[in-house]
């Protein structure tokens, strides 16, 4: 069994950057940093897939990809629309909150359409897309309204 030694703080202690027991504290690149160049490409592919799913559902076209692409649209559109509202969270927390918010938006739209007896696949896809667009545009309007007169953000 090994014991862990605890050093007491003293005035002659080596700074944490140079402490041999603590290792180097320089900012190391993230293990995902090499994939940062692909983020715009992946965003474009995701937007294209979501738009294709919405079009397949709205135009009532039959395709083997219709189900997965419509499902992707129904989860991605509200999720990405909520992302600007959650800027203060870290990446993982933001992803979980966006996914949860997307499920909530979908359930809210489905419940409202069922209660009003106007349920249809086309209407559901259009309503989710509309709610997502409203949420995203409200975030952009809020951001624009809170800018300082010099043009920067506070």
From TrEMBL:
Q: Give the record's keywords alphabetically.
A: Membrane, Transmembrane, Transmembrane helix
Q: Which domain of life is it from?
A: Bacteria
Q: For this UniProt entry, which segments traverse the membrane?
A: 38-59, 65-83, 95-118, 124-141
Q: Region annotation Disordered: residue ranges?
A: 1-27
Q: Where is the composition biased (Polar residues)?
A: 1-11
Q: What is this protein called?
A: Uncharacterized protein
- Please give the organism: Streptomyces typhae
